[in-house]
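Task: sequence design from structure.
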């Protein structure tokens, strides 16, 4: 009440109570009916342009406002106001507009406003070109936008960008036909282009934004060109083939999803459930990719008899690496558990003794001990326990949990697999699994059936027993069988 004073009143002293809430007024129309004015003004500029800032709390209510910038308001009665526009929020809800015009300052509630936006030029938004972005699309370049009314030429930039597994996605199209004119936001746009250093960058609709075909906007594009759109085809489940451009969304050496840009420029995503394979042009050569379970892999060699591919789902366990991984994880859990036991006891030697006792307990007993400590922390009286004791209880519970985790690691099915390639004999569909550790032992019997190999000098044969020359070896074998 008043200056923030509070009064507590017994229920018996009240006749009624309620909240003071501002309600949009009811107005009468020309035909005599009544209606409530709309409380949802339309924002015609991108939200990112307003520069919201937190200004503190008033009676527990967080307040925000925007930096005053040149803008406009169209009131519900049709009046147009232009000047320095500032928006205000309470509890993250837009609740007031303030605009300073040549006639003075006006404050308006949301129900009084039909539309609003900013009136900024490129130079005002970029501080005369001094403000630039690493992401190409956020800078302003000449180009085009395609709307329902046709193609417009002018200057285009985007208000927002986000890097996704598919590539960088831009949103918030800002456009002006003449560089010195006010920028306008466009929402219903089907395509965007920018011309940068003589090269055209295309932005195709993707989700709630536009996916760029700029190589700089592709994840790890500098390391893997398969993530960049290049000419290709996809084969649908019904066997039909579509021509366009393909970019892979990869995990290590294989893809689980691809993006496909059709001949109209529309981009769609496809998984292994939706297509049976695809081709992608690399250095002018179409590379065929096949489906293996839920993944796509390149055919590294595909001849008359043999076909070779990198296996995305290896099966050969590397026993040594598995043992080392389990040991390292177990040691880490053990060391952390001991440190927590020391913290729980407050003494190094006592902590070591406590850890020995913990490790001597059965897994069932440790589980009961952990659950008992957690149950204590939920007791109504636990808040009265001194903080130091609470810390020790928490440390003990953590130590017990880590010991349980250590035991789970040792008993787990954790497995490290060798990196595998699959050699397929297309005549009988037999498969040979190849991996570095036993490569010579596996490949030599296959090579012994090749007359070309048998007539080689020992030095030459040695090269074909080196897994680094796998593709060349399979190519030779294909000519033998």
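Answer:
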């Amino acid at each position: 009440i008043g200056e923030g004073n509070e009064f507590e009143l017994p229920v018996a002293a009240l006749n009624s109570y309620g909240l003071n809430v501002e309600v949009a007024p009811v107005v009468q129309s020309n035909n005599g009916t009544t209606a409530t004015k709309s409380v949802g003004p339309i924002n015609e500029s991108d939200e990112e342009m307003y520069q919201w800032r937190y200004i503190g709390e008033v009676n527990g209510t967080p307040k925000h406002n925007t930096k005053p910038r040149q803008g406009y308001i169209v009131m519900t009665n049709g009046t147009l106001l232009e000047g320095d526009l500032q928006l205000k929020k309470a509890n993250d809800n837009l609740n007031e507009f303030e605009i300073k015009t040549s006639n003075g300052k006006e404050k308006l509630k949301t129900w009084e406003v039909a539309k609003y936006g900013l009136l900024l030029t490129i130079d005002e938004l970029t501080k005369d070109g001094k403000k630039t972005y690493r992401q190409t699309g956020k800078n302003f370049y000449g180009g085009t936008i395609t709307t329902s009314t046709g193609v417009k030429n002018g200057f285009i930039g985007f208000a927002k960008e986000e890097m996704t597994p598919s590539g960088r996605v831009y949103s918030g199209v800002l456009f002006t036909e003449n560089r010195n004119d006010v920028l306008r936001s466009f929402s219903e746009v089907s395509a965007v282009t920018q011309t940068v250093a003589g090269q055209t960058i295309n932005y195709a609709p993707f989700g709630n934004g536009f996916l760029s075909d700029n190589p700089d906007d592709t994840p790890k594009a500098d390391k893997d060109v398969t993530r960049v759109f290049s000419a290709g085809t996809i084969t649908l489940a019904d066997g039909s083939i579509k021509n366009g451009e393909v970019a892979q969304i990869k995990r290590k050496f294989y893809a689980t999803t691809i993006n496909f840009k059709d001949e109209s420029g529309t981009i769609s995503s496809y998984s292994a459930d939706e297509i049976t394979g695809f081709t992608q042009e690399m250095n002018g050569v179409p590379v065929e990719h096949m489906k293996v379970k839920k993944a796509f892999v390149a055919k590294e060699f595909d001849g008359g008899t043999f076909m070779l591919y990198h296996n995305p789902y290896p099966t050969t366990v590397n026993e040594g690496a598995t043992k080392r991984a389990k040991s390292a994880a177990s040691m880490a859990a053990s060391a952390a558990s001991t440190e927590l036991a020391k913290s729980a006891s407050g003494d190094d030697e006592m902590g070591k003794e406590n850890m020995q006792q913990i490790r001597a307990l059965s897994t069932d007993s440790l589980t009961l001990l952990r659950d008992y400590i957690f149950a204590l922390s939920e007791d109504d009286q636990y808040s009265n326990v001194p903080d130091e004791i609470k810390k020790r209880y928490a440390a003990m519970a953590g130590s017990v949990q880590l010991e349980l985790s250590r035991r789970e690691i040792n008993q787990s099915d954790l497995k490290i697999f060798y990196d595998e390639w699959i050699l397929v004999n297309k005549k009988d569909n037999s498969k040979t699994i190849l991996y570095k550790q036993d490569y010579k032992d596996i490949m030599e019997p296959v090579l012994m059936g090749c007359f070309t190999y048998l007539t080689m000098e020992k030095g030459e044969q040695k090269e074909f027993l080196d897994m680094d020359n796998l593709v060349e070896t399979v190519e030779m074998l294909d000519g033998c069988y």
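The chain is about 25% helix and 40% strand.
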